[in-house]
Design goal:
The protein contains 5 helices and no strands. It is mostly helical. It has one domain. Helix 3 packs antiparallel against helix 4. The radius of gyration is 13 Å and the shape is globular. The chain starts with a helix and ends in a 10-residue tail after the last helix.
């Protein structure tokens, strides 16, 4: 990866992207996931950090492999939270 790509993959950038998705309501699975995680006792910021991990999987695949962003897999990973076993896939 280039330095510019590394800069995009920062935790802060991923978290900011998730926060923007929540605000925009797109994809809807992001807002639904946040609500579910918070309602089950996860602090909001921790929930957003977990969601950023799900996003990181997709961003990494796009940047490393030139793949298209996999919306279906992103949604599935969001739905599996707080279980983060998907992190072992990369």
């Amino acid at each position: 990866m280039t330095d510019q790509q590394d800069d995009f993959m920062t935790e802060e950038t991923l978290i900011e992207t998730v926060k923007n998705q929540i605000e925009d309501g797109s994809p809807i699975a992001v807002k639904e996931t946040l609500m579910r995680l918070v309602m089950t006792g996860n602090p909001r910021e921790e929930a957003i950090e977990m969601m950023a991990c799900a996003l990181a999987i997709e961003v990494f695949d796009v940047m490393k492999n030139g793949a298209e962003f996999n919306q279906k897999r992103y949604k599935e990973n969001l739905e599996s939270l707080p279980d983060m076993s998907f992190m072992g896939d990369e």
